[in-house]
Write a structure and sequence with these properties.
Elements: E1 27-31, H1 40-46, E2 47-53, H2 56-67, H3 73-79, E3 84-86, H4 94-101, E4 105-109, H5 116-128, E5 133-137, E6 141-146, E7 152-155, E8 161-168, E9 174-180, E10 189-191, E11 198-202, E12 207-212, E13 216-222
Parallel strand pairs: 1-2, 2-3, 4-5
Antiparallel strand pairs: 5-6, 6-13, 7-12, 8-11, 8-13, 9-10, 9-12
Helix pairs in contact: 2-3
Length: 226
Amino acid sequence: MEVMRHASTFLRPPPLTPAADGPPLTYALVVLNQRLPWFAPVLWSHATLRVFADGGANRVYDGMPRLFPEQDPLEVRLRYKPDLIRGDMDSIRPEVKEFYSNLLCILVSGALGGRFDHEAGNINVLYKFSNIRVVLLSDDCLIQLLPRTHCHEIHIQSSVVGPHCGLIPLGAPSASTTTTGLQWDLTNTRMSFGSLISTSNIVREERITVRSDSDLLWTISIKKDI
């Protein structure tokens, strides 16, 4: 009969070299809405997947900086960020939800190309989860949503993307969009389907700014030789 080994090695810092008595266990850490134990950073160091269960995000946001009082709280929170937050989101505080949402970006490969209805469904995901950064990728370009709730700075990595780009008011017309850094900038410009939309534009600077009263799709070409 095969032997199943058990040990509380997760309460000690990970060894520098793997143990000789078999492959190490893979740990997933789930943080519930209860006070963090003093050894939470050790558990964190063992885990390859870290999940906050709703209000558990509050506990890490508040509790981890208390375990490192001599360090900057923001640096601690950035170091101990989740791979996933799950739940009905009735316990997580709004400022905590916003903080972690801004740290997450989901990259979706193969989201463009093929059947148009599938592409439209993938683009709809951008609007459905507009509070999370989601980037749709194909061999030729990327697409992401620029919510109207923010002013946007887009930093161009010219060795891998560009120069062709576009701003598209897919969800609703835009009565006023202003940009900087493009070959053909917009200044309080009205955009809508059946009228003007910004396609086949060119990035001119390494920093693009966009401000609009409507959600916009940003798209930029991906270079073939990256």
